[in-house]
Amino acid sequence: LLGQILDQWFESEPLKATLATDAVIGAMASPHTPGSGYVLLHHVMGELEGRRGAWGYVAGGMGALSQAIACAAAAQGAHIFAEKAVCHVLLGRDGRAQGVALQDGTEVRSKLVLSNASPQITFLELTPQEQLPKDFIQRIRQVDTRSPVTKINVAVDRLPSFLAAPNARDGQPLPHHQCSIHLNCEGTHLLHQAFTEATHGHPSSRPMIELCIPSVLDPGLAPQGCHVVSLFTQYTPFKLAGGQPWDEHARNAYADTVFDCIEAYAPGFKASVIGRDILTPPDLERIFGLPGGNIFHGGMSLDQLYFARPAPSYSGYRSPVPGLYLCGSGAHPGGGVMGAAGRNAARVALEDFRRL
């Protein structure tokens, strides 16, 4: 249990709760859920520019990372087609993947197909079901994709000023504006309470909030004097209690709760808001293809990791369809902006390609 690990090393409850957020981030779990300690490990393993466990902002926003990967691929001769939805994977008479068919009817032939879509989309929507073992299909259907995340993007006309560390008179960013700010994390019991509410179908009344202001480090993201604020919040259920829909009223009611919480820490925040974009778990699924809204394409619980990700006997990036590989977050080692699944899958696919 994460709680036991933190109790061994720390005494301060606010510090333990703040560290605990990385053990439940993106997970429908509480700090008291067995296996939550691994999720914390997952988020602090690795390094950034030589600093172990460090994280960073991408200059230009997260889309700039995709553009950098695209430029590197194009430099090696790759052809990239955007806004071209895939309809299904093409299979030959021998059952091998032979490319993909696009929704506009175009067929793209290839000897190998790598999918960084979720296992659910890859195998339940894009692959002919008769080509997959029934027990494999059942396993993919049973993957726990519950997600507690509602992402809120906010535009503000001034920098938030927190009671704990008020802004200077010149309004210039301070050190705490340049890192991740955790709110409603004074104690692990608060995280557990927020989790419990969501398990009963109710958005948390005091949500866990991770607040970042990327425009402080990357001024090009907002006009001068203004800022963009990224709110990663938990816990919100995919399905609301009583079958209530995640309509505009429900979205705004939850966002108002989040903003009321921020206002208590930084008076004047609500008055500074110019606009907001609210993405609930169903929105994240619909827009980004994240099953259940899960940023990891499936829970990072111990029964869905290592040799069992996405299914036993298929953790090595190969699928039941020869020539079809999984290279996204649903493959080992799971989610996070680190590229490990893609790199590993590429090596496996290259090995098979050389045999062909």
> What's the structural domain tally?
2
Unreliable sequence segments: none
Rg from C-alpha positions? 22 Å
**Alpha plus pi helix count:** 11
Gross CATH architecture of the largest domain: Alpha-Beta Complex
State the CATH topology of the largest domain.
Polyamine Oxidase, Chain A, domain 2
Give the total of beta strands.
12
Tell me the major beta sheet: 5 strands, antiparallel
Describe the structure.
- The longest helix is centred in the last third of the chain and has 18 residues, at 248-265.
- The protein is 33% helix and 15% strand.
- The strands form 4 sheets. It has a 5-stranded antiparallel β-sheet. A 3-stranded antiparallel β-sheet has the order 3-4-5, with no helix packed on it. A two-stranded antiparallel sheet has the order 1-2.
- It has 356 residues and is of the alpha+beta class.
- The chain has helices at residues 2-9, 13-24, 36-44, 62-75, 119-124, 134-142, 188-199, 248-265, 269-272, 281-288, 340-355, and strands spanning 47-48, 51-52, 86-91, 97-102, 107-109, 113-115, 150-156, 181-183, 208-212, 227-234, 273-279, 324-326.
- A hairpin with a 4-residue loop joins strand 4 (97-102) and strand 5 (107-109).
- The chain folds into 2 domains: 2-56 and 148-288, Polyamine Oxidase, Chain A, domain 2 (Alpha-Beta Complex); 62-144 and 291-354, FAD/NAD(P)-binding domain (3-Layer(bba) Sandwich).
